[in-house]
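Q: Predict the bound structure with F7E.
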Amino acid sequence: MKALITGVSGFVGRYLAQNLLDNGYEVWGGSRNCPPSFMDGVKLVELNFTSQESVMEVLEDVMPDVVFHLSGQSSVRYSWDHIEETFESNLMDSIALLEAIKNSSLKDKIRVISIGSSEEYGLGAELPIKEDAVTNPINPYGLSKLSIGKIALLYHTLHGMDIIHVRAFNHIGPGQMLGFVTSDFAKQVVDIENGDVEPTIYVGDLSSKRDFTDVRDIVEAYRLLYEKGIAGQIYNICSGVCISIEDILGILLSFSSKPIKVIIDENKFRPNNVKEYYGSNEKLRTATGWEPSISIKQSLFDIYHYWKQSSHK
Ligand SMILES: C[C@H]1O[C@H](OP(=O)(O)OP(=O)(O)OC[C@H]2O[C@@H](n3cnc4c(=O)[nH]c(N)nc43)[C@H](O)[C@@H]2O)[C@@H](O)[C@@H](O)C1=O
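A: Predicted complex:
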């Protein structure tokens, strides 16, 4: 099987590439600014969504069986101040990809895994959130992802294309960039341990509760959905339970031997935040047999170690 991953050099892209290689796939990675070398076994191509023709050329050259469309703007917080950029790189790039596929010789031979988010549900969905729950996103990021899902499934209905839209809930793991809660917290704990800063950690809203899954389990679900999912369907990827951000902080602080003072920084709060949500993964489990294998504690421990190792480099 031949897979093309857009945004391969991002946090999730790297894990997906490794998962696919481990499972015998030929892996091609698309990136806007293609680095000269990347990961053993991954063949790189330049993907520029502003030129539909060049995307088509890449598709005709590579002839993948599946495209995992991972590239995009992934930060909810950033989306508030960068609405145009968020819609450009999430929605418009997705449309460019779908159009290129529709107009290529691959149209009836390729499966597209479109990556959405639990932020598409927003306010008012009944817990645990199922795929048919109401969608009422309350930030630009969630709205952009909801639009992608709607457009993607329209291409399925109107043009008969084989597309699955996934709604991934919060995913975490070693290598996630700063700006996401577990990396933000773990890096500060490590900096404190190393004596680089005062023993004070600055955090945002600790009261919200989210459904976290390790990125290694998330990418396993992406692969299984390619292999076993049903075209035209939406699938949640989530653990099915939620944990408060305060408890996440507590676990990360427990890895440190130093007493650490916690300061709530209101600048880190969001203009709009759903207090608590978690999803149902029943549809995904039934379709693919997937189940999460890495506990939240293990994930947080691995993230903490990642930052510890990075700080010694
Ligand atoms: C499903 C969804 O999941 C992610 O979006 P997110 O939920 O915004 O992720 P986050 O890690 O930035 O925040 C999680 C929670 O943690 C709270 N929080 C407290 N204190 C800090 C803090 O210091 N930093 C951050 N970043 N958050 C903090 C913050 O207010 C929020 O309630 C993306 O993967 C996205 O791509 C996606 O699709």
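A: The radius of gyration is 19 Å.
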